[in-house]
Specification:
The protein has 119 residues and is α/β, with parallel strands linked by helices. It is 33% helix and 24% strand. The chain is globular.
């Protein structure tokens, strides 16, 4: 059976491979918006996977920048419920740039997007 290539596919040997996407979301005291953000981003990720635009190994990577609210516990809950959601947790607040850098150093895939948790 022939595989039809899409514009996002990469030719690897004699087969086409869909790109892996990581969406990085730095977080600092975001408990009020995390549920909505994760729901929207997970839905988008699943749609792109089901439409075969991105690989099923694509993920959401939240980076908790030392939050003092319930952000970390919410991220743990998300990660336990969805294998596509991962998180990094800092022991204290290092700033958004450090959170983005940690996300970029951890992210895998051909495409990486950084988005604010509060949209």
């Amino acid at each position: 059976m022939a595989v039809k290539a899409q514009s996002s596919d990469t030719l690897l040997g004699n087969k086409y491979v869909r790109p892996v996407l990581t969406i990085i979301v730095p977080c600092y005291n975001e408990q009020e918006v995390l549920h909505e953000t994760a729901e929207k981003l997970s839905g988008t990720l699943l749609r792109l996977i089901s439409e075969q635009i991105i690989d099923e190994k694509s993920t959401l990577l939240f980076v908790d920048d030392g939050s003092s609210d319930n952000t970390l516990s919410i991220l743990r809950q998300f990660a336990n419920q969805d294998k596509r959601i991962h998180y990094i947790s800092f022991s204290r607040n290092f700033g958004k740039e450090a959170a983005m850098l940690a996300g970029l150093q951890t992210a895998q895939g051909e495409y990486i997007i950084i988005l604010d948790a509060d949209g």
